[in-house]
């Protein structure tokens, strides 16, 4: 995928020169028979990547580290400390309750979070044009243009999303501007080329109705300079920017995207899933390659199934429209503690989640309103 600057097929980066796609003139199509397929239908087509080589065999993964893993147990003091520090970060929460509530029970779980990230590339081609300024034209006379997946470009760093536009080598040709017919200017539609329009105040009568003095706006001439063309009667062609000619070429649009699949193992505690999805975890397993293979033998069956499901979902979603460049699957351990407490005759719960002991409180008993938004 590396771009070799000495190569004839090197491409110009057009990221800054986006122009709306437009069908090329018919005579251009006749000159480019080998791209007929590309120009069917809506004149925009996704090219399918070549099939990948068959997969490597499944390897055995050592899960002993998981089985031996002991999540540090959250003690009562740690549970209270986490709550106090959470409460002190909120202006509306009083710390007296956190300091004096009675902790009755700590229910601890270690959850597994599986993530699959897939970095893929998709390519779209479309005809486009830009004003022609006298630079060398890389047209069909310099060779046949490559098929879209053969155009070599610099791939951004893995998992870094980007969209860029390139000019397909040897696809360019210069044509007279179809909008102004090669004149670089066209007649102003505001004044039909006259440079002046009828005075809007007196409607050309030179004086206003029932008034004897002449119209002040047009000084009695009945006409005003056309504001659309500043009195010139013509306008610079917006299509060719006055250059009279257009460079038509096939533009290759490449999109690099990340897809994410995420699964957190069952826990039967009331902590919201979206908090656990972004909780800080302890990395247990990481596998990164151009293609990763489903985990089949993880001690938690849910996680193995999630891996199989995630990989199947990503390949089904991407197979027909993109090429997978890199995949990364991870398994992390997320500690979660449900703290049952008693305060002023009532019992309730809060949660401590993640390796950094984040807190989620359902109904904190000591809240004030100081005018801020309670979240
Ligand atoms: Zn005008
Ligand atoms: Zn007037
Ligand atoms: Zn023009």
UniProtKB/TrEMBL annotation:
Acidic residues bias: start-end ranges: 1-11
Stretches that traverse the bilayer: none
Bias type Low complexity, positions: 14-25
Region (Disordered): 1-25
Recorded superkingdom: Eukaryota
One GO molecular-function entry: unfolded protein binding
GO terms under cellular component: cytoplasm; nucleus
InterPro entries, per the entry: HSP_DnaJ_Cys-rich_dom, HSP_DnaJ_Cys-rich_dom_sf, SSUH2_homolog
Signal peptide limits: none
PANTHER family, alphabetized: PROTEIN SSUH2 HOMOLOG (PTHR48465:SF1)
Protein name: Ssu-2 homolog
């Amino acid at each position: 995928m590396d771009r070799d600057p000495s190569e004839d097929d090197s491409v110009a980066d057009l990221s800054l020169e986006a122009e709306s796609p437009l069908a090329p003139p018919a005579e251009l199509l006749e000159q480019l028979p080998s791209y007929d397929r590309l120009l069917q239908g809506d004149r925009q087509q996704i090219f399918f990547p070549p099939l990948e080589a068959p997969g490597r065999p499944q390897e055995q993964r050592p899960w002993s580290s998981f089985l031996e893993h002991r999540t540090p147990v959250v003690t009562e003091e740690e549970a209270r400390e986490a709550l106090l520090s959470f409460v002190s970060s909120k202006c509306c929460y009083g710390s007296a309750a956190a300091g004096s509530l009675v902790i009755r029970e700590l229910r601890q779980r270690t959850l597994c979070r599986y993530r699959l990230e897939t970095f893929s590339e998709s390519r779209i081609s479309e005809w486009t044009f830009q004003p022609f300024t006298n630079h060398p034209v890389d047209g069909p006379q310099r060779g046949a243009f490559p098929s879209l997946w053969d155009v070599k470009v610099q791939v951004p760093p893995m998992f870094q999303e980007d969209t860029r536009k390139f000019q397909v080598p040897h696809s360019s040709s210069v044509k007279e501007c179809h909008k102004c017919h090669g004149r670089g200017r066209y007649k102003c539609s505001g004044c039909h080329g006259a440079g002046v329009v009828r005075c809007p105040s007196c409607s050309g009568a030179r004086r206003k109705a029932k008034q004897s003095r002449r119209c002040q706006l047009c000084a009695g001439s009945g006409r005003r300079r056309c504001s659309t063309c500043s009195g010139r009667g013509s306008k610079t062609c917006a299509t060719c920017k006055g250059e009279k000619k257009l460079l038509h070429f096939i533009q290759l649009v490449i999109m690099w995207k990340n897809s994410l699949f995420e699964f957190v193992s069952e826990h039967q505690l009331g902590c919201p899933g979206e908090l656990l999805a972004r909780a800080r975890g302890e990395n247990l397993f990481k596998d990164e390659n151009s293609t990763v293979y489903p985990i089949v033998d993880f001690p938690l069956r849910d996680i193995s199934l999630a891996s199989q499901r995630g990989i199947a979902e990503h390949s089904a979603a991407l197979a027909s429209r993109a090429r997978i460049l890199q995949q990364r699957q991870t398994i992390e351990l997320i500690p979660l503690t449900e703290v049952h407490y008693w305060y002023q005759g009532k019992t309730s719960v809060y949660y401590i989640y993640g390796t950094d002991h984040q807190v989620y409180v359902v109904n904190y008993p000591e809240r004030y309103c100081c005018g801020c938004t309670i979240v």
